[in-house]
Amino acid sequence: MSSLQVTAGDRIIEPMIALADCSTQHRIIVAGSRSMELMLELHRRGYPLAAATGNCGRPAGQYDVALVDWRRRTLATLEATLDWLMKFLGDRVMLVVWVDAQKPAANQSLRALLEKRGFVIEQGMVHECGCALSARRLQIHPLQKAA
Questions:
Q1: Confidence (pLDDT) at 137
Q2: What pLDDT was estimated at residue 11?
Q3: Structural element, H or E, at residue 11
Q4: Which 3 state secondary structure label does DSSP give 35?
Q5: Spatial contact of 54 and 35, defined as CB atoms under 8 Å apart
Q6: Helix (H) or strand (E) holding 64
Q7: What is the DSSP letter of 24?
Q8: Backbone angle region of 112, left / alpha / beta, with phi > 0 → left and psi within -120 to 50 → alpha
Q9: pTM of the model as a whole
Q10: Residue 103, helix vs strand vs coil
């Protein structure tokens, strides 16, 4: 007889997938303290191209979706991780950041942190396990890239 155990990762994976609007064909990078656990859960759910930050290869702008589980961590430490993660993300990446329930000021700080890195917030959600924002990278025109 086995017991059904639902971990916090299991509870946030469905909303993260929905916010990212990702398919099984997308290359997904998962960051955060439980990145390996979430990556394995994505594999179980039929997302074979998911990788955790521990096994994601060299940065080459190769990922379409980034799922970041940043619960029980500070926004200050998220900045450094996002800066590192940016090298792995393609031009049209969808980013989902999951954090603990935030006060309005902290939520604004998270929005500003993402916008500073060229993202536009598309959706937000509040859940029993925290809250999340989904954001898409602004389109950069080829001429602007060269400048």
A1: 92
A2: 86
A3: helix 8-20
A4: helix
A5: yes
A6: strand 63-69
A7: T
A8: alpha
A9: 0.87
A10: coil
